[in-house]
Design a protein that fits this description.
With 79 residues, the protein is α+β, with helices and mostly antiparallel strands. It contains four helices and four strands, in the order αβαβαβαβ. Strands 1-4-2-3 form a four-stranded mixed beta sheet. Helix 3 links the parallel strand 2 and strand 3.
């Protein structure tokens, strides 16, 4: 999780999905308390592309690690 504080990243479902599709994402962080309707398709896409997914945090923790004041369902580390 500390990777999010200092690394090149994008935050949010749309930006993360775009990074995965463009081949820029190297790891995805998904909040375990996020809506599965939002996260399941992204997990499937990451699995298909061989991108590791970390589901061990919640919305607040991911938002805080990214330096924002609101929760975040998804964040992606970039190359």
């Amino acid at each position: 999780m500390t990777e999010l504080a200092s690394s090149n990243k994008v935050v949010g479902v749309k930006q993360s999905r775009k990074a995965v599709r463009d081949g820029r994402a190297v790891k995805l962080f998904l909040a375990q308390d996020a809506d599965p309707a939002i996260t399941q398709p992204l997990i499937a896409e990451c699995t298909q592309r061989g991108i590791p997914v970390d589901c061990g945090s919640n919305l607040t923790q991911i938002g805080h690690a990214c330096g924002i004041t609101v929760g975040a369902a998804v964040a992606a580390l970039l190359k």
